[in-house]
Amino acid sequence: MSNVSPNSKHEPRIEDTPPKRNRDFADLLHALLALLIGVAVILFSIYLHGTASGVQSDVRSAGHVVSWLMDVPTSLLQQLAIVFITVSVLIQLLVAKEWLQSVVSILALILGFAAIWGVSALISGSGNVTLIWALLSNGTAVGIGLLPDFYAAMAAFLTVAGPRRTRSGAKWGWNILYTVAVLFVVLSWNSLSGVLVSFAVGRTLGMLIRFMLGTQTNGAWGNQVVQALRAIGIDVVSLSRRYGNDAESGVLKTTLDDDLTENSRIYDASDSNGIQYTVSVLDNQAHTPGYLNQLWQWVRLTGVSMRRDRSSFDTIHH
Questions:
Q1: CA–CA separation, 156 and 161 (whole Å)
Q2: Which H or E element spans position 22?
Q3: 34, 75, 82, 220 — which has fewest CB within 10 A?
Q4: Residues in Cβ contact with 94 at an 8 Å cutoff, skipping those fewer than 6 apart
């Protein structure tokens, strides 16, 4: 109830509890996409081995300009990248007092190593010589070390640490990781297929962990809703949320009060003149489940919503 506009004559009575974290279904879609990319790379390596080898050879042929890096130990470059990325990202998280996310990010780093070792063991145990040779490189060996573990671990860590668009540490971490990956492929230390599969495994794991952990909510809650209403001339003195109509359970719902907009939050508000209002708030983080729900309704051909809003932007322009 702080940060109330000084132009208001009333201290509003607000009954609302914003969640600290919110599960974004876009993370599940990204995890599925990363998994499909990893499977596609494996199939490509098996059935189009000649083409994959040609692409990898072309990449390495273009790397003569950085041949001087052959004198630098690759293990040293890898360790420097791990230390720099991990420390810089963790410092940013700790400064922002994201204690839980810091701990889970470290856990994701460890699980990234374990996941890629498991995938390597499965592929090595499959006995598919074509696939094994496509993934094998100078820096790897048949067994749990078939795939480079560095990329999977760091990809899982950076994914859980936060979106790169909001955290500069994660953004620079991804840039460094991509640069190291290109250099190692050019220097024949890692195979192109192995790097892509490792990235896919780490990204899939990271997205699943981020979905279970939840992301920081960025919607309008409580006093922010009051400020938005006052910006359009409604001097709110009371704002109360209807907890029976929300969608925190993850089930998409619509009501006549919110004009059939899925997953919107409903508030009862009253102004200084005693006029009652019904306020509907739709967060941008709800646009992905809204889109999926709309597609599911189209497939079923039942319960198709009169509204096609998939984001807050669509809602206000409807």
A1: 9
A2: strand 21-22
A3: 75
A4: 102
Please state, in angstroms and rounded to a whole number, the distance separating the CA atoms of residues 155 and 161: 10
> Residue 274: which region, alpha, beta or left (left: phi > 0; alpha: psi -120 to 50)?
left
Domain spans of the chain, in order of start: 24-216, 223-316
Rounded to whole angstroms, the Cα distance separating 147 from 118 reads 10
Amino acid letter, 292? L
Q: Determine the distance from the C-alpha atom of residue 299 to the mean position of all C-alpha atoms in its chain, rounded to a whole number.
A: 27
Q: Is residue 273 pLDDT above 70, yes or no?
A: yes
Question: Could you give the CA distance from residue 282 to residue 269 in angstroms, rounded to a whole number?
Answer: 16
- Token pair of 124 as six digits: 């090595």
Q: Which pLDDT does position 294 carry in this prediction? A: 59
Cβ–Cβ < 8 Å for 296, 289: no
Distance in angstroms (rounded) separating the CA atoms of residues 152 and 112:
5
Number of Cβ atoms within 10 Å of the Cβ of 221: 17
Which residue, 157, 144, 191, 187, is CA-closest to 82?
A: 157
As a residue count, the chain comes to: 318
Closest CA to 86 of 117, 113, 116, 114: 113
Q: What is the pLDDT of residues 89-117, one digit of tens each?
A: 999 989 888 888 899 999 999 999 999 99
Nearest CA-CA partner of 36 in 212, 290, 182, 207: 207
| Cα–chain center distance at 84 | 22
| Residue 284 burial (CB count, 10 A) | 15
pLDDT in tens, 193-217: 899 999 999 999 999 998 888 776 6
| Integer Cα distance of 307 and 91 in angstroms | 44
Of 191, 81, 186, 179, nearest in space to 147 by CA = 191
Q: Which letter, b or e, does each residue of 108-146 get, where b requires 16 or more Cβ atoms within 10 Å of its Cβ? A: bbebbbebbbebbbebbeeeeeebbebbbbebbeeebbb
